[in-house]
Design brief:
It comes from Paraburkholderia phymatum (strain DSM 17167 / CIP 108236 / LMG 21445 / STM815). GO terms for molecular function: CoA-transferase activity. InterPro entries: CoA-transferase_III_domain, CoA-Trfase_fam_III, CoA-Trfase_III_dom3_sf, CoA-Trfase_III_dom_1_sf. By secondary structure, the chain is of the alpha/beta class. The chain is built from 18 helices and 14 strands. 36% of the residues lie in helices and 15% in strands. The longest helix has 23 residues. The radius of gyration is 25 Å and the shape is elongated.
């Protein structure tokens, strides 16, 4: 298995995120992760760990593997593999195991004995039915950390319900405050609920590992409910309701209670302006020739600006009405006001900031064709993350991993013949 050749935004000599003398193993080198999940939340958590050096073994069903292999755009378009797969499964080893077979479960238990982290996102109780619950796996590996991602968590009256990211975004409060008040709540165009939950899982796993290694603790379960991960992002909605009975509602493109922060139309499109800190607000008003508002003592602080939101937004909109995006960006950037155009993915490919930070990389797909992927983030100066290989073929590493467990060629051949792997 060789590392992919890559360029970063067209720079063939770039080593993304690295500096001379940087260690190339990653900060999680030596950490072993076993992934028992499909689609988004669990696999994204394991992907994140793998990008920073963890050895990730992904268990897949021999009959088709992770359904994400066939989600969204495929390459080739007919009968191919998802382009998303190249990202979501990068740096992972694919091992096919029939989890309904006793010998298949035995293989998983052996892998879990050597693992630091198990990541799973099945419906609560499924692993227990398979004889692979945390009680079983931790009895053989007391230091094991298990990240469990599910719609509603491992306890409570809803635990057995199916729960996807879209449901979590709704129950967690995000959908209620998203969009315009006269329209039904829209969804964000990505699976944000799953991704937020995955990042909570990674944070929990790293905290549990630190406790085990630095404090002499034992392993533990990291129980992430998708709706709770979304709920954790809801800022001040809970105390506002608890104290004032206020229910935050949809406010379109503005950020409620923080003024001015909105999307504003220019002559040839829209821009986003965040002029909500006190000194920035003054600079913004001076830049748009509204010295009266800049010098109004009643508007010096956010609590004074909120009641006059419409007036302030109107002043900004009037100034922008006859200006192009580029003209507006020129003036506001010169005034040190946070402002930006709304990017499409096409904009990202050519933007100088994306290029300078090497955020888009080009690799070779299996047939030699170029494939572009997002670079790994965040950027660590000494132990940066990297793409060591793209998403693997189904079962590509099955024999290799079985050999490390002590299975000989004849035994592996029998497992294949019996469709256990």
């Amino acid at each position: 298995m060789s590392a992919p050749t890559s360029t970063a935004n067209g720079n063939p000599d770039a080593k993304p995120g690295a500096k001379p003398g940087a260690q190339r193993g990653g900060p999680l080198a030596g950490v072993k992760v076993l992934e028992l999940g499909t689609l988004i939340a669990g696999p994204f958590a394991a992907r994140f760990l793998g990008e920073f050096g963890a050895d990730v073994i992904k268990i897949e069903d021999p009959k088709g593997g992770d359904p994400l292999r066939k989600w969204r755009k495929l390459y080739p378009e007919v009968g191919g593999t998802s382009l998303w797969w190249a990202v979501q499964a990068r740096n992972k080893k694919s091992v096919t195991i029939n989890l309904k077979a006793d010998e298949g479960k035995e293989i998983v238990r052996k892998l879990a004995q050597e693992a630091d982290i198990v990541v799973e996102n099945f419906r609560p109780g499924l692993l227990e039915k398979l004889g692979l619950g945390y009680d079983v796996l931790s009895a053989e590996n007391p230091g094991l950390v298990m990240v469990r991602l599910s719609g509603y968590g491992q306890t409570g009256p809803y635990r057995d319900r199916p729960g996807f990211g879209a449901i979590a975004e709704s129950m967690g409060g995000l959908r209620h405050i998203t969009g315009y008040p006269d329209l039904p709540p829209p969804r964000i165009g990505i699976s944000i609920g799953d991704s937020i939950a995955a990042l909570h899982g990674v944070i929990g796993a790293l905290m549990a590992l630190h406790h085990r290694q630095a404090n002499g603790g034992k392993g533990q379960v990291v129980d992430v409910a998708l709706y709770e991960a979304v709920f954790n992002m809801m800022e001040s909605v809970v105390p506002e309701y608890g104290v004032y009975g206020m229910v935050r509602e949809r406010t379109g493109a503005s950020l409620p209670g923080i003024v001015p922060s909105n999307t504003y139309p220019c002559r040839d499109g829209s821009i986003v302006i965040g002029g909500n800190s006190d000194p920035i607000f003054r600079r913004l008003m001076l830049a748009i020739n509204r010295d009266d508002l800049a010098n109004d003592p009643a508007l010096a602080h956010n609590d004074g600006r909120v009641p006059r939101t419409q007036e302030i937004d109107g002043a900004i909109a009037a100034w922008l009405a006859d200006r192009t995006i580029d003209e507006a960006l020129g003036v506001l950037n010169a005034a040190d006001v946070p402002v930006g155009r709304i990017y499409s993915v096409a904009d990202m490919f050519t933007d100088p900031q994306y290029v300078a930070r090497q955020m888009i990389q080009t690799f070779k797909w299996q047939d030699g064709r170029d494939i572009t992927l997002p670079n790994v983030t965040p950027k660590l100066s000494e132990t940066p993350g990297e793409t060591r290989w793209l998403g693997p073929e189904l079962g590509e590493h099955t024999d290799e991993v079985l050999q490390t467990l002590g299975y000989d060629a004849d035994h592996i051949a029998r497992l294949h013949a019996q469709q256990i792997v």
